[in-house]
Structure formats: structure tokens, C-alpha cells
Amino acid sequence: MKTYQHTQPANTILAFMIPSFLGLAIGTIFSHALIFVTIIIGVTCWIFRSMTVEISDRELIWYFGSGFPRKSVSLSEVVSAEPIRISFLNGWGIHYTSRGWLYNVSGFGAVLIKLQNGKQFCLGTDEPEKLAGELKGRR
To answer: What CATH number belongs to 2-136?
Structure first.
């Protein structure tokens, strides 16, 4: 049973990617060499259009708009959850940072999640205090 679910739209990514996609799509009329790049940007927009975070009785689950990639961790492994701010330099998408893996589609709010095995990662969200509170309430 889901006890928490929130989907954040990727307003920031889409604000940059959609105009690029449209410009390239128009450009393919004049140069067919742009088709490959246009397809890559279109697929990227589709995959990263939003990010959903869910908490069930047993798991923390997160996935992007397309449902892929999908990740999860058992709630019993979560040691702490702390609301944080990430900088513009951390960016958006999926990549490794000084705080571990970052999964983010928009904004600068996130939750730093530490696991029993010492690993940590960050989930971007526009409601970091609420997500952190939900996770703290499950331990």
C-alpha cells in the first residue's frame, strides 16, 4: 500500500529541451543529419518529463516520467533523511555528486538519504521537508 506519492514535473529541463527539440525538428527539413540528435533530445524529454517518489509499507521507490529508470530501496535500510538544497552546479538528471547519486528533474530542493551500508543518494523534490518527514516517520 502506498503511504506517500508525489510527482514533480520537469519544468526546468523541459523549458530548455522542448525549444531545442522543436528547433532541431525544423532543422531536419534542411539537413537530414539532424534527425539522430532530434530523436535523442525527444527521447530525453519523454524520459525526464517528471519524477515520482513513492513510499509504501516497505520501500522507497522513485522513477522518471516514463517509468524508467526505476529504483527502490527497502525502508529498513534507510538510516536518515535530511532536506537539503543543491546548487545550480549539481544540475538535473541522474549523475554522481559529492553527496552520492542525484536523481532530479527540476529545482534545488532535495532529500539526502543515508543507508545502513554507508551509501547515500539525493532525491530532488519540490517538497523536501514533507518527503524527509515521511521517511523519518517510517523508521
So the answer is: 2.30.29.30
